[in-house]
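Task 17 of the worksheet. Students: predict the tertiary structure of the chain below and write it out as structure tokens. Keep your answer in the requested format; marks are given for formatting as well as content.
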Amino acid sequence: MSLTTGITDTVCYDAVNAILLNEFLKEHRTVQEQQKEIDALRAELKEQSAFIQMVNDKVELNRPAPRTVLNIQ
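Model answer:
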């Protein structure tokens, strides 16, 4: 019963189920979109990691070999 009007409030359970279903579907779409974005970011990260490794390998190849000095005392 509503305190302000004195009229009994009712709930239409069919409408509640439809509302809950719509909210679930909306959240499910949001999660799917987020998963696609996560997958794209993972692929980009993998590419960047490979590029960084390639650059590190080139730097190592261009670094001069260490020289050994004979120290006779």
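Marker's comment: The first helix runs from residue 13 to 62. Helices lie at 13-62.
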